[in-house]
Fold this protein.
Amino acid sequence: MQVLKFGGTSVATAANLQRVAQLVETAAQHTATVVVVSALGGTTDALIEAGRLAAGGSAHYRTQLQRLEDRHLGVVRDLLPISEQSAVLSLVKTHCNELDSICDGIFALGELSDRTLDRLMSFGEILSSRLLAAYLKAQGVAHLWHDSRQLIRTDSRHGFATVDSETTNQQIQAFVAAQPCQIYVVPGFIGSDAQGVTTTLGRGGSDYTAAIFAAALAAERLEIWTDVSGMMTADPRLVTLARPIPRISYQEAMELSHFGAKVLYPPTVQPVRSQGIPLWIKNTFAPRMKAHWLK
Ligand code: ASP
């Protein structure tokens, strides 16, 4: 068993999703694979913005939501053969209608609670993971999509929920045992509390979702696929001479991510470290570049 997580840039467009599907298909030939997906790049920020506009009494939230809907529908049209599109287009529309109703409610009340914000943000990962699953299906690749809210149990601290590891591990293990499959596709970032209310794991939390699955399944490896090749000596957007660090310890990785290395969400390290699971950071756009790993 292995866990592969793809970040927002890796799934930002139809072409990128196709590349991801290819990487997944190849990787899953070797062992059963859980694929954790972030929202299409920029989606979470756009959802938060829509919620804030609605709460602030600005009807511009509708434009914002329309843009999001158009983007996802556009990806479906670019991604899938015409014969496969209609079911997925209507799935996207159903989710977007729900999103509209939630934002209408926020607008009417002039109030956006953390609980409602979690609900809003959850649509990003639900949609992106559905799109990847739809493409795998169109390619004839057997897989199982599952809503990680049914597996990841958290407390009710909205926006930054704490995971109940015992229940979560049990639920993940029971699910995989009951439904054996070579490829599982799940949305990152989201969970639910004991009442079934949607929660989120903190911004950037899809990495953490992946680590939770890896630890629960005693995976042989966790791979974080992103747009850089590993942890760097400095922020590559600021320092042109930044270099990938070939190999670092869990401890150093945790420190680097705490001090601002954006490549890894800090809580990710703990679950894999506790089980000694190697964590690789790989570049979706240069998969042949030497990967980097922590031990
Ligand atoms: N989509 C969420 C965010 O932008 C979670 C993630 O991408 O890891 O924070």
